[in-house]
Amino acid sequence: MIKPSLLGGFAITASFMIGVLFWPLSEPSFNQHRPPSATPVAVQPLKTLPALVIKSPRRQFQAVLYAYSSTVAQTDASPTITASGTTVGHQTVATNCLPFGTRLKIPSLFGDRVFVVEDRMAPRHGCHSIDVWQPSTADALRFGKRLAVVQVY
């Protein structure tokens, strides 16, 4: 059996919660009660933007970097579609041991350029190899094989 005093407290609490939830919908805007200003106030634009917060990498590791391009000889029958289902682009990298969508930087080779893991390599390459997508086979051949520190964000 429910005591009436408990039920009454529930009703008061429920009505208070409903009032809090719907208060902005039922009250007029505070700006409607403010008298209009006699002279308009000019808003000055920001001269400089605040500095962005730079996240530090979650981890770093040394990897062997290769390059690949969108050719059937280097990929599969659909060379411009990655293993994650996206279309290749200048941010695309392939690796086997990081989840799709992981963001990487390779500062010694590409500075602050951010790459996204969107593709996979052949299983024989293991976890410390990364393929960087290049727009042409000539660019991929020029890139060659390089050793670099990779930052994972």
Task: Give structural notes.
With 153 residues, this protein is an alpha/beta fold. The chain has 2 domains: 4-30; 59-152, RlpA-like domain (Barwin-like endoglucanases, Beta Barrel). The protein contains 3 helices and 6 strands. The chain has helices spanning 4-26, 107-110, 137-143; strands spanning 59-68, 92-94, 103-105, 114-119, 129-133, 146-152.
CATH architectural type of the largest domain: Beta Barrel
Mean pLDDT: 77
Structural class: alpha/beta
Helix fraction bin:
10-25%
- Total discrete domains: 2
Distance between the termini: 57 Å
Largest sheet: 6 strands, mixed, barrel
Shape: globular
Strand order of the largest sheet: 1-5-2-4-3-6
What is the count of β-strands?
6
CATH superfamily label of the largest domain: RlpA-like domain
Q: What's the number of helices?
A: 3
Radius of gyration (CA) equals 28 Å
CATH topology of the largest domain: Barwin-like endoglucanases
User: Low-confidence stretches at least 5 residues in length (pLDDT < 50)?
Assistant: 10-32
The first-level CATH class name of the largest domain: Mainly Beta
